[in-house]
Amino acid sequence: MRVVAIRVKNFKALRDVSMKDIPGFAVMVGANGTGKSTFIGVFDFLKDCLKNDVRVALRKRGGFAQVVSRGHEDEAIEIELQVRMGIEAIRRQRLVTYHLRIVEENRRIAVAEESLRFKRGAGGAPYHFIRFRNGKGEALPETFDAFDPGVPLTRLNREEQDLDAPYILALKGLGQFRRFDVASQLRELIENWVVSDFHIEDARVEPDAGIAEHLDERGSNIALYAQYLREEHADIFQTHCSPNDPLRARSCRSSDCRHGRRACRPSLS
Ligand SMILES: Nc1ncnc2c1ncn2[C@@H]1O[C@H](COP(=O)(O)OP(=O)(O)O)[C@@H](O)[C@H]1O
Ligand SMILES: [Mg+2]
Predict the structure, then answer these.
(1) Which atom of ligand 1 is nearest to the CA of 197?
(2) Greater confidence, 229 or 198?
(3) C-alpha span between 89 and 185 (Å, rounded)
(4) Is the separation of the CB atoms in 218 and 196 below 8 Å?
(5) Phi and psi (nearest 5°) for 242?
(6) Residue 92 half-sphere exposure, CB side, CA atoms within 13 Å?
(7) What is the mean pLDDT of residues 104-112?
(8) Residue to mutate, 11, 14, 29, 70, ligand 1, most ligand atoms under 8 Å from C-beta
(9) Is CB count within 10 Å lower at the N or C end of the chain?
């Protein structure tokens, strides 16, 4: 399972930003204040939305007014993720799109739209398996019929659900049930991803001895993490950490970098 694309609207400095064909290892280079940390922060925000709820995640960042792009306070914050994942019921891969629209109206936070869509069959348009608005919505359990486009939609039983509050994600609730396998895989992915905003000055400190299975918040344990990768995941180490790797060389044009150096920003590990 991997995130292949993301689109973000009205999240702080990111007015409307999309990244497609995200590789397993990506490098972002840009002047200070251009939104690199903000972009990485979107992943952390989603994790907080799921672990707690959207209202708490916004409060932690100063409230809706601080998070929505300045001058666009009356618009929605939108996040759309595309994830390729295996679906248990059909033992096939599907491209799953998760869409989230968050608004503040009369000082109340609400998820105006939350949806999960993917194709029922090999072809055709993606179908909304889960769609919620302001805490109310419907979800189609992932039965075998649900993935057979020959079975008319009227024959499928969509479950109506009410969430406890409009600022709670349906993914958090539905993701607990096996019949909503996609929601539960996505929930697990978001809840468990590790977000690290790499700062070179922090990485220069001499590391303590130990094991690091993930980069920490600012990447200060990168030496230990690289050692862990080399010992436990030699294939990943070879692909991403080899200085001669052509992928890395392509990802960063030295002209973009003030010192002509390659800057690495491992965002997810
Ligand atoms: N709500 C907001 N609306 C618009 N811009 C914002 C908002 N909050 C912060 N910013 C701006 O976003 C920028 C921060 O970008 P940041 O992600 O830290 O950049 P980088 O990591 O590339 O140095 C700053 O210029 C800051 O003024
Ligand atoms: Mg930064």
Answers:
(1) 21
(2) 229
(3) 13
(4) yes
(5) -75, 130
(6) 13
(7) 96
(8) 70
(9) N
Cα(12) to centroid(ligand 2), Å? 13
Q: Which residues surround ligand 2, an ion (CB under 5 A)?
A: 37
* Angle of CA points 91, 50, 165, to nearest 5°: 115
pLDDT in tens, 44-92: 999 999 999 999 999 999 999 999 999 999 999 999 999 999 998 888 9
**Which amino acid type is present at position 141?**
P
Distance CA 178, CA 81 (A): 21
Give 186's Cβ-side CA count (13 Å radius): 32
Please tell me the distance between residue 20's alpha carbon and the centre of ligand 1 in angstroms. 22
In sequence order, which ranges of 52-164 are alpha helices (DSSP H)? 54-60, 64-67
DSSP state, 158?
A: P
The mean pLDDT of the chain is 87
At 1, list the tokens.
Answer: 């399972």
Cα-to-centroid distance, 39 and ligand 2 (Å): 9
Decide: 207 and 219 in contact? Cβ < 8 Å. Answer: no
Going from the C-alpha of 209 to that of each of 203, 220, 223, 232, 252, the distances in angstroms are: 15, 13, 10, 17, 31
